[in-house]
Amino acid sequence: MNFDSLYHPYSSRRFTHFARNGMVATSQPLAASAGLEILKTGGNAIDAAVAMAACLTVVEPTSNGIGSDAFALIWTEGGLHGLNASGPAPAEISLEDLTKRNLSEMPMFGFDPVTVPGAPAAWATLSERFGNLSLTKTLTPAIAYAQSGFPISPILGDAWKRSLLRYRRHVSGPAFDPLFDLFAPEGRAPGIGEMWASPEHAESLRLIAETGAEAFYRGPLAEEIDAFSREHGGYLRASDLEQYTPDWVDPIGINYRGFDVWEMPPNGQGLVALMALNILKGFELSEKDTVRTYHHQIEALKLAFVDGMKYITDPDRMSVSVADLLSDAYADERRRLINRDALDPAPGSLPQGGTVYLATADGDGNMVSLIQSNYMGFGSGIVIPKTGIGLQNRGANFSLDPSHDNCLAPGKRTYHTIIPGFLTQNERPIGPFGVMGGFMQPQGHVQVISNAIDFKLNPQATLDAPRWQWQSGRKIRLEHGVPEHIALALDRRGHDISWALSAGGFGRGQIIWQLDNGVLAGGTEPRTDGAVLGW
User: DSSP letter string over 404-437?
Assistant: First the structure.
């Protein structure tokens, strides 16, 4: 990987970091420090990723938790491996039951959208197959922060406050009391610089570490989840947890201008990013800040998203093949729809998400791209009493339309927004990348890859560059920093342009690239409390 310049105008806030022995990058400095410490004490990139993932459930609970799902791409032993740790809908849920309750769409909160959490199984599986250290060792930093507490960082503090206000508006009743008891212990969100601890969270992590996650799926934590679900009319049962195992899968990819871009296969939405890049590679993008570049990127993404929203679901239930959607013939067909004026593909509106992303690399060539998420902040709003376990609400993406590919069914995995990315060239690893943030994620992946490959921006400049977000139809939201003349030109082409009031909603990314000489080059997201550390 070569860069036009290490000092680029977009890198005014931070510079790309370089290291040789190992590197970690994520949205919370304390989690990054935990990963670096694991590397320095004999752990590999997989151990560091597990340590950081567990730590993030403590130090960034507004985005993920023990009850999250996870996906990972792992480069080790000369090849790329994919781990899908998303869970299915409970066996007792049914479309008929929800429609009898006069529901026309999946609820966002409560037990209804809760699917089987996969994150603890991901940690244990990664550690057992590829790690150098025990799960007890790698989860030690997370347990310590949960037990003793940590100071709230600025972006986290703001997100915590806003998330709690949102949940107070939308949820109430005994099922949600543990949420506010845990995350608003004094009736409010902890302030920036204040300490927050969760000894119950620490005990759950300790049980998961000591039992290789068995306590969560077949032990006392599973029993607590089952009991609380039954008490409040939920569908999740201990039997759902007991039967769960994550899946090792083959990553999917396309070649983009000499580089192979890899994503997880469905039920993840990484397919959207690949379809968009497959369309985009038919255009010559010679300059970044031109209306032509923006227009072609936006139109390619819109066309890919229409297909993704229609077809992506549990891979065993898809009505079309991934190979067909990624074929050059199909990309050519879709590309021919793009002309000077904005298209109106008319998909549904796209909600925001709540996710953490991390990247790790070690001196032996191992690399990990891992993403972990509740969804929409504190997820379902369901926290299991006395455990610190907050449950995700991934089932909110199911459709209740019987004709839709992603229609709810027991034991089915839903369309999933979280997607790790990885880049290779000539069967050699370049490294992990990702941009978390609900339906912004494939949009962020497309922009990151284009910045790096088309415009040869260094990792930090790639992340610092202002972003755009397609919302629905012709609606495009621009981040401040996009040149005004481009906004005006996009408007003349029929795009419905609005400016973002803040950086929220444009995703939060991390990158670690390996240079030809083996040196690691990393960038971290300026829109969060992120940190990239190396040694």
Answer: STTB--TTPPPPB----EEEEETTEEEEEEEEES
Q: Are 338 and 296 in contact (CB under 8 A)?
A: yes
The CB density around residue 78, as the number of other CB atoms within 10 Å, is 9
pLDDT at 89 over 50: yes
Domain that holds residue 414: 1-535
pLDDT in tens, 166-197: 999 999 999 999 999 999 989 999 999 999 99
- Sign, Cα dihedral of 66, 400, 107, 350: positive
Residue 57 a catalytic site member: no
* Tokens read off for 305: 């998203």
Instruction: Specify the DSSP class assigned to residue 454.
Output: I
Amino acid at 280: L
At 370, list the tokens. Answer: 């891992």
Indicate the SS3 state at residue 531. Answer: strand
Secondary structure element (H or E) that encloses residue 389, with its range: strand 389-390
The number of distinct structural domains making up the chain is 1
Tell the residue number behind the tokens 């929800």, with chain if given. Answer: 98
Radius of gyration of the chain (CA): 22
Q: Does the CA dihedral 294-269-74-529 come out positive or negative?
A: positive
- How far apart are alpha carbons 424 and 357 in whole angstroms? 19
* Residue 400: predicted pLDDT: 95
DSSP labels for 327-340?
A: -HHHHHHHHTT--S
CB 202 within 8 A of CB 146: yes
Q: Which two tokens stand for residue 51?
A: 């340590």
Annotated catalytic residue, options 140, 355, 360, 417: 355
Tell me if the pTM is above 0.85: yes
Strands (E), 37-192: 69-76, 79-85, 150-151
Residues ≥6 apart with Cβ < 8 Å to 191: 152, 157
Which residues, in sequence order, are CB contacts of 76 under 8 Å at separation 6+? 44, 45, 46, 130, 365, 366, 367
Of 445, 395, 130, 450, which is closest to residue 284 (Cα–Cα)? 450
Q: Give the model's confidence band at 492: pLDDT under 50 very low, under 70 low, under 90 confident, else very high.
A: very high
Q: Which tokens go with 216? A: 């969560």
Q: Do residues 532 and 35 touch, judged by C-beta distance below 8 A?
A: no
